[in-house]
Structures are given as C-alpha cells and as structure tokens.
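Listing 4. Sequential folding, example run.
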Amino acid sequence: MSKSQPAGQERTGHDATVSTTNRDPDVGHRPPYFRLGRTNGRDYLADLRTRTVHVINPDGTRHHRYHLNGKSLDEFMEAVASAHGWERRSYGGGIKGLIERGMDA
C-alpha cells in the first residue's frame, strides 16, 4: 500500500523525508552522488551532501575520502588533473567537456 506525500516533500531511502522546497543550493537538482572520473584504476565519486569526494578501489572498498573544505568540485578536478591526470573524466568542462566525452564514447 502506498502512502501519499504532502506537497513539497518526497520520500527517499528507508522512509526518510526530504523537503523539495528547501533544497541545498550546492546540490540543486543534481543527484547527491555522482562519478567525477577515474585515475590510477580508482573511481572518484562526489557526495554533495557531505561535500566530500570518495576514492573507490576496483574491489569496491574506499581508498580515501577528501573533504572539499570550501573548494569547488572544479578546483578539486584540476588538482587531481595536475597531480595524476585523469584516465576518464566524467565531470566538468561545461558543454565542451560534455561534447568531448560524448565523442570519446
């Protein structure tokens, strides 16, 4: 049996309620978790709710967690690009980046 939701609210997870009228401006309408890219055989996943980036090993375990500490995802992406380079970049670059990633697929 389904339960109706009050206006301005939605259900997520195990009966957790999140207000859609008071969205976090940093999250907006983006999913709270998404892939940033891959380097050194590890996936980098952003968590906008906690403002962290998780580095995931191929076996699914977490290798490291970075706290953004006020930096933007774009700044983080550039720091990783400078330090390691990206094997595959899934975030950033605006429309140009989206087109480039589409042509690489």
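-- end of first protein; second protein begins --
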Amino acid sequence: MYQNQIRMLVALIILLGHLAVFLSGLMLGIFGPLAGTDVVQMIVMTLPVLGATAFAALNYVLANEQGVGRAYKVSSGFAFIVVLFPVCLLSAIFAIFYFVYIQVPGMGPDNMKVSLGGVETIFGSYLGAISSRLFGAPNAATST
C-alpha cells in the first residue's frame, strides 16, 4: 500500500469508528441501562481522540484539495500496525458497550467509564505516535 492510501484508511477507520461510538453510546442510553449523565460523560470522554483525528485529517484534505499522488510505498508491517491498532481499540470500545448492554456482572456505568478512559488513553497515545507520520505536512510534490 502507499502512504496516502494508508493515511485515508486510518483516518476513515478512526473517524467513522468514533462516530459509531457516539451513536452506539446514545443508543445505549436510550435502550440500555445508562442514565443521561452517563451518556454525556461517555461522549465527552471520546471527544478528544475524535477531535484530534478529525482536525488532522481535515487539515490534510484541505491542504491537498487538488489531490495527491501515490507518494511512497509503505512496508507491510507499518500498514498492518497502523490499521490493526485502531480496529482493535474500536473493537474494545464496542465490547465494553456490549458488556454494559447485556449487564455483565461488575460492568456497570462506572466501570464502563473507567474502561473507556483506559482505551481512549491508549488511543490518544497511538495517535500521538502516528499523527505526524500520517497527517504531517502535505507532500511538496503535489504543490503547483
């Protein structure tokens, strides 16, 4: 895969994944055991990662309005890690929601918030590690 393909794929996974987290959290509040304040706290916890990714991806898209070339080919290990990591983290978030929804003993709203806080902290660390590599300065080769 090429860098720009990986960049767009990772941005889409994180952006669409976090939007799905919002919708799932709202549904958990409407149809599940969460109170209104629990839902608001859950949404506020996921905002920093979504905001950071959205801002970086939006800046990249706006800076490259005429499109970008393929850039360079990335190693399969790099592609695997930067795609697999957000998929695993989003899967962990949805697993937490599912456990709360089916009311697994010991997984109430308070434990959900602690678990989400841990996963989102790991997500933020992941973004810190890859954001400059994926969403750094746009390619100079595409400027006119």
